[in-house]
Each structure stands twice: as structure tokens, then as C-alpha cells.
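Render Serpin (Serine protease inhibitor) in 3D.
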Amino acid sequence: MTTDLHGPLSGYAERLHATIGDRHHVASPLGAWLLLALCATAATSLDRDAPTVAEELAEALGTDLASAVEVTRALLDAPHPLVAAATALWHRPGQGDGGPAGWRAALPASTEVGVLPDHAGLDAWAREHTYGLIERFPLQVRPDVVFALASAQATRISWANPFEVADAGSLGADSAWAGRLRRVLRSPSHGHRGAIVTTTRAGDVIVHAAPAQAADGAGLVVLSVAAAPDVPPADVLAAAYQLSAGAADGAEPAGRRSLFDLPLGATPLWTLREERVRTRARNGREERHEALLPCWSARSEQELTASALGFPAATAALATALDRPVQGFEARQVAMARYGRYGFEAAAVTGMFGVVSLPPEGIARTAELRFGHPYAVVAVATDTRADGGTGPWHGVPVFSAWVAEPEELPEAESMSQ
């Protein structure tokens, strides 16, 4: 079983990876897609006034806006035990309270809504929601930023069955990595899955699935897919997304090839050998798959400004909902991943800013206030609470004074700090 999100997300992933190109990278298409879906809550209520924006956003999402909102709410309001996920919508004080308010009720209950933090606050939010794997928010707060939208995803898992270790030469004579590495990972004798599969986009591919399992039955499967060296990366990624549709259920992929239909010997993707064994397999023909993979890690940062990724439409929808005259936007994602013998960890933070043009040049006057004669001082308590209310001390004058005899600044306090 898969959710209705798999198809739209596969299409979105293809566009996102295409904008990044062929360089070594990691990304979270889900993280970017979730931001668009949050904006769909606004566009749903505005599509009568801005049909073009709603249509562009739906095209980027790969589904109708109502479905995107429903799926997003289901994901965020029922968190997965192995995948941390968070979203937030922030705005400048007094600059996000306009526009129709009904769309806010459609946001997932877990979405944080409030005043735009400073950059230290955004960094703290990124660390908090990614187990500390992402230390900095991908965008810098400036005076022209009027609202921000963010999503974060993170996972840190241990394999249900750890890998074994093999000599890197096992990657084969055709592998350039065999000469650069000393050791690689070998799949264990049980617990992992492997296959050779014929796909539409990438031809014959090799597939390896490493599962992690949580105590309550929720889990995560990391799928690795390789095609012939001359197959374009976009086609291999597309094949991987296609095969991932059944990975959660452990379903046998369509197009799986029997090892008894393939010739013995070596290819750039596999080496097929045959031996006599005792087996209970039907017809006495047993098929085994062993996988050899390198450890790897990646840290990437990518702009999300291409029109095909949907953020121009998302910005327009949100700007209208917040009743802000936004002139532009910024959108960027930072992501990391690490794949090793005992587990896998990955995280991504995606951010979008709506910006206005800075005001034109004018004239400013500065008053230098000089307390050069006797003056009064009153110390007033503040007592604000997390719910926005105030406590009994709020506004109470605690100390007061009349200053008529000034003193020299102590020498120790006159030094530069």
C-alpha cells in the first residue's frame, strides 16, 4: 500500500533533481512539496480571485489543492516514529494578520504559526527539528522579509541487520571506486532484499533494500538502485522512485528478472555464478542476491527558484492570504545524509521567504537625548505568559527615583569590553 502522495511526489522529485543536476547531492523533495502544500491551504480559498495562481500551484504539486492539503495534514498530524517532520509559518509583527483567516484553520494542527524569529531563532528551529543534523537555516533574515515558511525532516535509524565488510575490489574491475576504496559494505545473509529488475526508463537495474524496524511496527526502508553507467541520472532516479512504490510492503517489483534467465558471468552491474547446494526451493532452483555498496555521505544546498518547482505560485498565494504586497521570494533547501554499516541518517530544512522592496531613500532625523539635569526613573515589571496573556506583576512600577546627584563612571567600567 502507498498513499496518494507517491505519484505526485515522484513527479516533483524528478523536476527537483533535474534542477540540481548530476553532481553528488542529497535532497528532500518531500520537504519542498510540503511547503507548497501548506500554501495550497491559502490558494484553496483564493482560487476564485486568483485562478492562475491556484492552477500553477496544483500543477507543481501534481494533484488538486484539496488533496494536497488533506495528505499534508494526515502526514504532519500523525507523525511517523522514525521520521521527524515539522512545519512553520512566521510573519513580521502586524504584517501577517490581514487577509481572510479561514485558510489558517486548514493548516495542520502541528504547524507552528507566529512572529518571524531572528536568524538565531531560525537556526535553533532547524537544529531542534533535525536532531542537530542541520545547524543553520538555509536563508538569512533581512529587513525586507515579511513572512517565512519552513519544513524540516530528519531520520536516524539503525539497520535491522547490519552490513558485513568486504574488500573494495569486490566492486569489480569495471568500477573506478574499487581502486579508490579499501573496504565496502556487503549485505548480510538475511534481512536485506535484492533484485535485478527491468525498468522502462533505465533498462536493467540492480536493487538493494535495507530495512530498519521500529518496535511498534513502523519502519523505514532505504532503497539503492543502479543502472548501466551510460544511463542518465534522471532516468535512474525515476526508476528508483517507481520501484519505491512497493518497497514498504516488500512486494516483488514488476519486471523482476529470474537469475536463471540470465547468462553466467560478469557485467558492469553484477556477476552471476552457479553452484551446487542443498535447497528447498521449488524445482530445486534457488535465487540469492548479495549486494556490495560503498559507505557514502552528502551535504547539499540548492536553490528552489525554478518556476517548475512551484514556489513563485506558492509565494503569490501566501502573500494574498496574508494581505502583504510581496514583490519577490527566496526558496532554498539544505540537506545531508550518511549511509554506513550500522545505519542511515538524513535531514533537510526547506525555507521560503516572501520579500518586499526596501523603502525609497528619504530624510531621517536623529534626536540625541541628553539627561544633563535632574530626572526621574521608574522601574516597571513585565509578566508575560506563553499563552499570550499577562500575569499580576505586568505593568507594576517596582522602583522609582529622582536622579539629582550623578556619579563618575567607575574606571573598571570605562574599558572597552
